[in-house]
Amino acid sequence: MILRTFLSVLLTTLSAGYSVLAQSGDPISNPALITPAELVPGTVHPIDFTSDTTSENVRILGSWMLSSQNGNAAVQGYRDATGTYALLAQTDIGLVIFNTDDRSQPRLHAVFSRAGEMMNSVTVFGQFALCAQKAGPLLVVDLTDPGAPLLTAEYSATFTSAHDVILADTLAVVLSTTASDFPAGAHLLDLSDPAAPRQIAAITGRDFRSAAFADGILWLSVSGADSVLAYDLRSLPSVQPAGGFEFPAPAALTMNAQGTDLFVASDSADVGIGIFALTGPGTAEHLTSVVGNHISAAHALFARQSLLFSSGKNNLVQVIDVTRPEEPWLAGIFSENTSPATTAMVRADDEPGDGGVSVYVEPDGRTLYVSDAGKGLLIFAYDEPEFRIHGVRTDEVDYVSAQIYWRTTLPATGSVEVQTESGETVAIVRAPQRSRQQRVLVTGLEPGTTYRYFVFAESVRGELTQSEAFSLTTPMFAGEIIRLNAGGPGLVFGDTLWSADQEFSQGGFGYDGGSALSSTADVTGGPRPELFRTARAGMESYHFSLRSNGRYRVTLYFSEIEELAPGTRVFDVLL
């Protein structure tokens, strides 16, 4: 019996009633279930997360520790009338099936295994699991009874080393590497009869890392090259090159449900995840890339609803909101701040890796299965943040202006409405761009006045909300208020004095040059018509002697009393 070193302890005892693993070269028939001491159906084996972690909107629900010498390669979800399951492709054991009805305590349900074969991926096709192997055929496993999986078919006519399978209806795209005189490539299998898969076309000569499919166009990331290629499958069995684009070190690919946007993860964290809008058969426009301190190189991508989920080294889960693909934002993360122990992981390029290597998201868009190369099965919950405004405050309030600052739980546009205490709107100021942190400057306020204000916001998802009422009070001027009636006499309105126009003298205030003008015409639009029937023209300046340094408010009032045509009187005001 062929066993790997790391299983020498686990497989020393086989439970009664189960046969051992099939020997290499044995007839296929129905492979046996293995149940060594720690792989007994119904058992739980949680992982103790003792390392330092960072979590935002993502929390661990449950786990099953399955340490490995070669890796826990891929995970898929499966649901039938009997329950909810996670299928883990394990490179040393085979297909490990967990019951996840209780996400906090996943239980081992069954194991499907063949000796000497290393399972690289698993993909669910109806009631079947398609299992790609590093050194062996593609297996079609019947999951009608998840507790007793049965081999339905195997395919090895054109490849014997596969690492991924994607589906488009009854078409399976199997990605393989060079092995046993078979070239690397993408093999297109017809699964109309799952018991008899047949190849209808192939794209060979290149080692493809990942694939995505939409509207008859197959997109493939090329290992060892900075390119993503497109092939037209709309006239099968004919396959025609359809274009593509350059992208540094492309790895995982996935498509949104509408088939309008393609997401490409790079092996380089400096490149991040590229977002492309599909503009035609084989053509794509690069909208933006998601990079930054919290974005790591992603081994796997999964799109569900308006969210993009990724998993990679250290950052076990990253949730990116792509409601607006041109404006993606990090909505959640669960990461280990200390690097996990490096565990060899079998991948298409035979390079070692660690951390999360595969991610599957349940239809609810909130439950995630992650296969961790060195740990096993991890189940996470994504808690979508409620859209709200918080952290509202005022900064730098002076006599006539104030800065208002606020935050939102989601990227949002926003505005501030400022009202008098009686409810009259005096200002509406809009934030310049969509963000989770906003600051606006409100001007035109009056000294020594109390205002109330509200913050309004619209999230990137189109949700509307507003804050409660807040208040601010501008300070009174600290010194004397000087009012000057340019070109005219002194005026008194109630307890308010407007000084007569006067020539400047040292220590005082007044004009330097010019001549006074006056009019008897009616003046409308101003607070006091008498103030606007006089003016001074042609002066060089007005001087005011200040008692101390500080902040001063200067208000200028203008009226045209010579009845000149609009645009005739043009001048500058310099302070």
CATH topology of the largest domain: Methylamine Dehydrogenase, Chain H
Number of strands: 43
Percentage of residues in helical conformation: under 10%
Quickly give the structural class: mainly beta
Low-confidence stretches: 1-36, 338-353
Strand content: over 45%
Question: CATH class of the largest domain, anyone?
Answer: Mainly Beta
CATH superfamily of the largest domain: YVTN repeat-like/Quinoprotein amine dehydrogenase
Largest sheet: 7 strands, antiparallel
Describe this structure in words.
This protein is an all-beta fold and 575 residues long. Helix content is 0%, strand content 49%. The protein is built from no helices and 43 strands. The strands form 11 sheets. Strands 30, 31, 32, 33, 34, 35 and 36 form a 7-stranded antiparallel β-sheet that branches. A 5-stranded antiparallel β-sheet has the order 1-26-25-24-23, with no helix packed on it. A 4-stranded antiparallel β-sheet has the order 2-29-28-27, with no helix packed on it. A hairpin with a 5-residue loop joins strand 19 and strand 20. The protein is elongated. The N and C termini lie far apart (93 Å).
